[in-house]
Amino acid sequence: MFNSADCVAIHLQDLTAAENFYTNVMKFTLVNRSEIHLEYDTGLFRLCIDKELNTRPPLPNFTVPDIGAIKSDLVANGCVILRESTNCLDFSDPFGITYAIVQK
User: Is the pTM here over 0.85, yes or no?
Assistant: First the structure.
């Protein structure tokens, strides 16, 4: 079962420029920062910005109880796994929309 998470992720090359924009222009509250990650409180959800060579559009996040079982179901139903680590993965659904899932 998928549950919506309170996070939308984006991937950008320049975290310094992103921090300037989201802090000073959009006035979001920065709650976490590292060399490769920014996290903002936007009110209803967290905006997570990860440093990456390829800029990607916003990525809705969902939580699941068992990522292994979910992965098998996704692949069996025409989804493509784009990125994967121990407890999370990004996938594209049969319609070309990309999502992230994280194991609770």
Answer: no
